Amino acid sequence: MISSLRADAFVESPGAGGRLDVRKAVMHDIPPILDLINGYAARGIMLPRTEFEMSEAIRDFTVVSLGGDLLGCGALHFYSPTVGEIRSLAVHERAKTHGVGRRLVESLVEEALEYELDGVFAFTYVVEFFQKVGFQVVERGVLPLKAWKDCLRCPKFQACDEIAMLRILRPQRWNEALPRSWGAEDQFIQIPTPRPIKTP
Ligand SMILES: CC(C)(COP(=O)(O)OP(=O)(O)OC[C@H]1O[C@@H](n2cnc3c(N)ncnc32)[C@H](O)[C@@H]1OP(=O)(O)O)[C@@H](O)C(=O)NCCC(=O)NCCS
């Protein structure tokens, strides 16, 4: 569990930023990450995660903690040799607007550069935050098709209102290998709707 006491301490102490620990997640981070993400998921802000999914994806995750208490998390997920997604980004309610989200994104971007990615994208409702950390709004069609696989289990599958945002990390390489847009410029992408298969 995230201790609200520690989160309050963070908010009340402006100098606390120096003691923040930004690191890759390990297995014991799974319960507090699930509490954080699924708390937001219950409010329709994020996709819910299970312990099984978290165990599979734990190496994607970076966390920010203070005195051993988890304040925020975020993940870098690879889609192609050049593009990754920043996702599952969440900061504890009581620690918001103190730079934790920015620290997480910068750490994930650093990781993306280490892995030689040319760009990272995100699907989000918090456009202004992502603009502040170097992303721009893009037409959905520039993102890899595989990026839509999570949409199939999203409750908003039929009425997605998330905004696609991109941060280009290596402009020259990005422009040379400009991904082919597979959606018409003025249209949303039509994702195939899954139908049950009739058995004879
Ligand atoms: C979005 C979120 C991760 C931001 O984390 P945070 O720690 O509060 O952000 P930071 O304090 O690092 O903010 C960085 C900048 O963005 C701004 N910002 C943060 N949240 C913002 C918001 N909702 N709207 C507009 N600007 C915002 C901050 O004011 C700050 O600006 P500054 O650099 O000019 O001072 C956090 O609000 C959150 O967990 N939200 C709920 C889950 C969610 O929506 N996740 C995104 C899924 S893609």
In CATH's first tier, which class applies? Alpha Beta
CATH H level, superfamily name: Gcn5-related N-acetyltransferase (GNAT)
CATH fold-level topology: Aminopeptidase
Task: Summarize the biggest pleated sheet.
Answer: 7 strands, mixed
User: From the coordinates shown, what is the CATH architecture?
Assistant: 3-Layer(aba) Sandwich
Overall body shape: globular
Compressed to H and E, one letter per element, the order equals HEHHEEEHEHEEH
How much of the sequence is in beta strands? 15-25%
Please bin the fraction of helical residues.
Answer: 25-40%
SSE-based structural type: alpha+beta
The CA-CA distance between the termini, in Å, is 49 Å
Enumerate the distinct ligands: coenzyme A
Kindly provide the radius of gyration, computed on alpha-carbon positions and rounded to a whole number of angstroms.
18 Å
Tally of alpha and pi helices:
6
Mean pLDDT over the full residue set = 83
The count of β-strands is 7
SSE order and pairing:
Layout lengths: L3 H9 L8 E4 L5 H12 L9 H7 L3 E6 L2 E10 L4 E9 L8 H15 L4 E6 L2 H6 L3 E2 L25 E6 L2 H6 L24
The protein binds coenzyme A (COA).
Coenzyme A (COA) binds next to strand 4, helix 4, strand 5 and helix 5.
